[in-house]
Design brief:
Largest interface: A-B, 27 and 29 residues
Number of helices of chain A: 22
Number of domains of chain A: 5
Shape of chain B: globular
Radius of gyration of chain B: 17 Å
Oligomer: heterodimer
Number of strands of chain B: 7
CATH architecture of chain B: 3-Layer(aba) Sandwich
CATH class of the largest domain in chain A: Alpha Beta
Radius of gyration of chain A: 42 Å
Number of domains of chain B: 1
CATH topology of chain B: Chemotaxis protein chec
């Protein structure tokens, strides 16, 4: 320090890239450096000794002057920020002196210089923060823009979702009309060609409905709006139900559907059963669609992860056309099918697998595909489920004599045997095609407790089998029990006659394919216990009973149909008429309430079918009025079934919350309608 | 510590700090378009450890603070602390920002430093003017972090003159906390000067 001369210090101060002003106790200018001179246009020589308020008039009574005062009198240092004091002194960018647009943005530090030998001085240090201010302004502007963009995007997204929800509702309503009318049309006198056309129209309308559902799901997932539920359910039942509903389509194509539940250990789980069903039915419907002969295998496996969670793995494999290996990767991308021609031949939106994968991922899993062209495909998905609290006891084991399984399909036979062995039974498996000779021998030895016979085997073979069985049984006291494994459809007339006659025999039971664990176990238990023969007998006849709902004594039942759309009125009335019901029609809630009130003293309505969205008074309001208004006291407990095209989540809750008893989604499914009506009329 | 300040002495201290803080409010009102009223509802002398707990900040909570060191008759560190949210809110309100901000930019940190500087200077001014103490004070600095980071430069053995500050703006009430952290020796000197001052005024009053 001692080596530094005043000249050096003076030069150094002048070289600084900040402004420095030094004033004395009377706030008179002692010094300012070159930087300040450059940016103010003033020369120290001319200003030295002048009060700072004279040099810079705006200094007078400014925040800077009070800061200098506190520094000089009390030694308090001050920081003057740019935000509160943007330009405390008239300083400009070099070469723009006096130009207000080029004022320097400043940040000031004020501090007392305390040197014992002299009277106190005060130093003002000025930082040029212009570029920083500009930078922050730019950032702020960007942030603002970003924010308003984001808000716009959010609003747009919201209205998109709303639009989709509305569209789904709006489109469903007319499809409801189309499907309903087609159902009615098909019951009228039609020529063969007309029947064919009407069937095609029905298929198209159903496809359209399916498409809309897919698109709605897809857009919900895209918007992150799809909620995965968390409810307790039985895993085995859920899978079995799904497979059974899909299997009829497979059986129509003569494709065997085989479910293997033997590795399903945990049955009681918590998760979203409807989404699981959606995944499985999607994969199954693909498998059925792309398979022309052979079989579809569904293997289910659960493994525990820890005490609370388990992993479900489902493998759906088919013997269909397969997928070229290089195409497997983008199979799960939206709007991709193997090639455009596939879409044309087999139909579909190309959204199914995308939805499936996203659903799997939403449930903590994923899906993969293994396939070779021409050799079939395997879709393997897994997901995570919570273990349910409810413990389901394992199915009872049997200790009866061995069982003989006669099956035409190798896989199905083996699966069946494996399942039976799990229950402690000895099983002999016999292929109906290749081992016919030894089969007769086995039967004649008659060492079996039960015979499980695939009813799809050759009619002649089946007939022979029963004949030899009858012979063998002659010498026995206890007849060998037989469980016939039948399909839901597709039997030839000849086969049907044979089956019908076989089924009247008292030692013959039937089980519908695909064989699921629960019903197999139940049937076996029934077979082993003789007392349950009679009710089973009645059930078996149901198999060939026509599905058409018969006219009955439903005429006097009084139903009130509340529906504003004229086409939908006709559809509903037509369906009701077909079931033998008559109904009055109200065109909105107000009208419905009038009718209810008129009729409640004489012959009150027993059931109300209520549309939800109607002009003047909607279904929810109407229901609340019926349930709570004293005017309708005598009808206040009438059963109300909601019919709505709204299928957004929460609609059902909304209906129930309004006091309705049940809920039917439009387009109305005739058999579901029949089921619900008979249920609620019985209640 | 054997000689705590009597309630009378604490009252006197509160009184003079309120005068000082009133001046700070005047300065703030000149700086900003808002009307700001500052009051000190509470002054306490207590161990640093207890003062930290008194702050009512969760150990992981982000704190924005302005600090100035001082030395002379007594020495230590003065801190003005806000929860990060309150600090942001105060700056926004004083700057008249319409859009709520999520983080202090560098320039906005400087504004908080200036606000803190005005308030802490008012406290220092009070001490120098009324208690006739001779202390020299450093430039203010900004610190942000959790409570431990803020108190890095003080130990649990230190003492704290804890002052709660209430910022009353037309729309909002914001709480700030001031801690003058000193070691025990400095604290004794400080308390002695408070006693002298109170003795001075009570004598004047009775004489």
């Amino acid at each position: 320090m001692a080596n530094l001369s005043n000249d050096i210090l003076y030069a150094a101060l002048n070289e600084l890239s900040v402004g420095i002003i030094i004033i004395d106790e009377q706030q008179q200018l002692v010094f300012f450096n070159q930087w300040l001179s450059d940016h103010s246009g003033l020369y120290l020589m001319q200003q030295e000794g002048k009060p700072l308020g004279i040099v810079f008039p705006q200094y007078l009574s400014s925040r800077l002057s009070s800061a200098c005062e506190s520094a000089l009198s009390l030694g308090l240092p001050s920081r003057l920020s740019n935000t509160f004091n943007p330009t405390p002194l008239p300083l400009y960018q070099k070469n723009y002196l006096g130009d207000e647009k080029h004022l320097i943005q400043q940040q000031l530090s004020v501090k007392k210089i305390a040197i014992d030998s002299t009277t106190p001085l005060c130093q003002i240090v000025i930082d040029n923060v212009t570029h920083m201010v500009k930078k922050e302004q730019t950032l702020l502007k960007l942030a603002d823009e970003n924010k308003s963009q984001r808000q716009k995007a959010e609003i747009a997204n919201k209205s998109k979702s709303q639009f989709l929800a509305n569209m789904s509702h709006e489109i469903r309503t007319p499809i409801n009309g189309v499907l309903g009318m087609l159902t009615l049309l098909s019951d009228t006198q039609l020529s063969k060609t007309q029947q064919h056309f009407s069937k095609l129209a029905t298929v198209s309308a159903e496809t359209l409905l399916h498409l809309i559902n897919d698109i709605l799901d897809f857009s919900k997932i895209e918007a992150g709006k799809l909620d995965i539920e968390s409810v307790a359910f039985n895993l085995a039942d859920c899978i079995d139900e799904t497979v059974q509903t899909m299997a009829i389509k497979a059986q129509m194509k003569d494709i065997e559907v085989i479910v293997d539940n033997t590795a399903l250990i945990e049955e009681s789980v918590i998760g979203d059963p409807s989404r699981l069903k959606q995944i499985i039915s999607n994969l199954l419907s693909n498998a059925i669609k792309f398979t022309d002969k052979g079989e579809i295998n569904i293997k289910v496996k659960t493994t525990g992860i820890d005490t609370t969670q388990l992993k479900l793995v489902v493998n759906v494999s088919d013997t269909g056309i397969g997928i070229p290996t290089q195409k497997c990767a983008d199979l799960f991308d939206a709007f991709t099918q193997v090639d455009a021609s596939t879409t044309r031949e087999y139909g579909g939106t190309g959204l199914g697998l995308t939805i499936v994968r996203q659903l799997c991922q939403l449930m903590g899993g994923d899906i993969e595909v293994k396939s070779k062209q021409g050799l079939g495909s395997q879709f393997i998905f897994h997901l995570i489920l919570d273990k349910g609290e409810h413990i389901i006891p394992p199915l009872k084991t049997f200790n009866e004599k061995p069982v003989l399984v006669v099956d035409s399909n190798l896989n199905s036979g083996e699966m069946l045997s494996a399942q039976l062995r799990l229950w402690g039974l000895d099983v002999e498996l016999c292929n109906a095609k290749s081992e016919m000779k030894s089969l007769y021998n086995k039967i004649e030895k008659n060492n079996f407790s039960v015979l499980l016979i695939d009813a799809t085997i050759d009619t002649f073979l089946l007939d022979n089998l029963f004949t030899s069985l009858a012979n063998a049984n002659k010498s026995q006291l206890n007849k060998t029990q037989i469980i016939l494994l039948t399909t839901m459809d597709n039997d030839s007339a000849k086969k049907r006659t044979l089956l019908t006659s076989l089924m009247t025999k008292e030692n013959v039971h039937t089980l519908t394919k695909p064989i699921v664990t629960k019903s197999l176990h139940k049937e076996l238990s029934l077979t082993y216990s003789s007392e349950s023969r009679l009710p089973e007998r009645i059930n078996t006849t149901k198999l060939f009973e026509s599905q058409i709902l018969v006219e009955s004594d439903n005429e006097q039942v009084k139903i009130l149909l509340v529906e504003d759309n004229r086409i939908n009125q006709e559809v509903a009335l037509g369906l009701l008429r077909k079931m033998g019901y008559r109904a009055d029609v109200a065109k909105n809630g107000i009208h419905a309430l009038e009718l209810l009130q008129q009729r409640q003293l004489s012959t009150p309505y027993q059931l109300v079918l209520m549309d939800c969205q109607m002009p003047e008074m909607d279904g929810y309001q109407t229901t609340i009025a019926i349930r709570s208004d004293d005017k309708y006291q005598l009808s206040s407990q009438v059963n109300i079934i909601a019919m709505t095209a709204n299928t957004m989540k929460g609609d059902q809750e909304k209906c129930l919350a309004a006091g309705m008893n049940d809920y039917l989604a439009k387009p109305i499914n005739p058999s579901l309608l029949a089921e619900k009506i008979s249920f609620w009329l019985a209640n | 510590m054997q000689d705590n300040l009597t309630p009378l002495e604490i009252d006197a201290l509160t009184e003079i700090f309120n005068i000082g803080i009133g001046r700070a409010a005047n300065s703030l009102n000149q700086m900003v378009s808002q009307t700001v009223d500052l009051t000190i509802p509470e002054i306490e002398i207590l161990p640093n450890k207890e003062a930290k707990q008194k702050l009512d900040f969760d150990s992981e909570m982000e704190i924005s603070a302005v600090t100035q060191r001082f030395s002379g008759d007594f020495q230590g560190q003065a801190l003005l602390m806000f929860s990060k949210e309150n600090g942001l809110q105060l700056v926004s309100l004083l700057l008249g920002n319409k859009i709520p901000i999520e983080d202090l930019s560098e320039l906005e940190q400087d504004s908080l430093v200036e606000i803190g500087n005005v308030i802490l200077n008012a406290c220092f001014g009070t001490v120098i003017n009324f208690l006739q103490s001779s202390i020299s004070i450093e430039m203010p600095e900004f610190i942000q972090g959790n409570v431990n980071k803020i108190f890095t430069y003080s130990s649990d053995n230190d003492w704290s003159l804890y002052i709660k500050v209430k910022f009353s703006l037309p729309s909002e009430q914001i709480a700030g906390h001031i801690s003058f952290i000193m070691d025990i020796t400095s604290l004794e000197v400080f308390q002695e000067s408070v006693r002298k001052f109170v003795f001075g005024i009570t004598n004047k009053a009775s004489g």
